[in-house]
Design brief:
CATH superfamily of the largest domain: HUPs
Strand content: 15-25%
Number of helices: 18
Distance between the termini: 64 Å
Mean pLDDT: 92
Number of strands: 19
Low-confidence stretches: none
Helix content: 25-40%
Largest sheet: 8 strands, mixed
Structural class: alpha/beta
Number of domains: 3
CATH class of the largest domain: Alpha Beta
CATH topology of the largest domain: Rossmann fold
CATH architecture of the largest domain: 3-Layer(aba) Sandwich
Length: about 500
Amino acid sequence: MGNDPTTQLALLRLSGEIGTKAFATRRHFTKRLLRNLRDALTSESTSGSVRRSHDRIFAEFPRVGAEETAAALSRVFGLRSLSLVHACPYSTLEEVVEAGHEMFAEPVRGKRFAVRARRVGDRNRIPVSASEVARVLGAALEPESGGVDLDRPEVTVHVELMPGEAYFFPERIDANGGLPLGTAGRAVGLLSGGFDSAVAAWQMQKRGISLDYVFCNLGGQAHEQGVLRVARWLADQWSYGDRPRLHSVAFEPITEELRRHTTPRYWQLLLKRQMLRIAERIASERGAIGVVTGDAVGQVSSQTLQNLSVVSQATSLPILRPLVGFDKDEIIALAQHIGSFELSKVVGEYCQMVQSKPATAAREEAIQREEQPLDPTLLDQAVAQRKIYDLRALEDKDLSLPDLEVDRIPEGAILLDIRTRNEYRSWHPEGALHLELQDALRAFTSFERNQTYVVYCAIGLKSAHLAEQMRAAGFDAHHLRGGLRTLTRARDLGSDGQ
């Protein structure tokens, strides 16, 4: 393989787990991995090629933008690491040393260095030993350098020797391991837009499971837009080789029925059971055989071990809970690694059904009694009327609410704060009125209709929901993009958002 100055060669290493599989399984996994890698190149608008040799895979692509392309390839599950390499044909030790000296004489100049060499493939067809290459190449480079340092080198010269060709590179780029996406079946992931559900979905994709996402919408169009941003990130950045969809299900009729017919202390459990039933219906349509959730034991009242057991009985499908033993700090760290942290931070967790003394050890018999008055056809209607989004086809213009959001408060507008009473008392702009969300949802129909209203909350999610409801009823209503942060910035600048 030559070294075209306009192209970059990358050496990709399989996840160690793939190497442990039986021959037929390994061949199937590798075939799927090659497909996913080609999709990554195409998705990054990069021409290139991918081929397999021994237990390595090679990708070749334009040198312009090579670092960005390498980053995309590192997000393809099933790879352990990759390196941008220089290839050199050889038949003798002298040829390997000459090529290595030419490539690394300048990078090691005045610096401490080490040579790491290894043989890959059929060793009977590799005429030199790795230790010999390391010793002789190290001796050739030492006069140019600041000395050999095998423990803490400033520059590491890596050499991989294969039959007929040597590959030189200065570093390994870590990938994420796991299994190639699409090799372990299909599931649906319940996605709220918060940290946990996005990280749980990523963890299951890493295990080779293809996902569709089910979003049970409790917060209107703005909430849906926030969740779509999270889902699109997962699809664009981590779903090479797959075409995930998001199924957005309007959940307000279901929550209203729960309010009318059930006991508040059970609301969260009943809500989660209804969500699982929705997910099960969509899974059946999509040929999926599991449901992924972001539950972690003890994180909230509905996630005690007893409550998780009760919730699980709502569906016959396996429930996959990859975060069940994670601490919140671990989940946040993974969200930052995945890149979903900033998107999820804005969306947060949203639910209208908040109770002051939730059940922490519910019994199945009690939950079944609570569910007896509920109409199961509401779930069928919600599934039938859902919106389905092809996530990898979404564009930025599909993820905005230009008529609903404002960045500044129009002159003469009534400013409505829907945070908690304590939050309102801690600080609010002069003249801002206060109603908590549930009170505002009940009361807004009696507001003056010849006024302009701007609603704000802590982050801009609940306020968007209220503004959307008000606009649907004919009010001139908006929500303040960024919520309280926008107001405090304006306060610090001395303008109070006007």
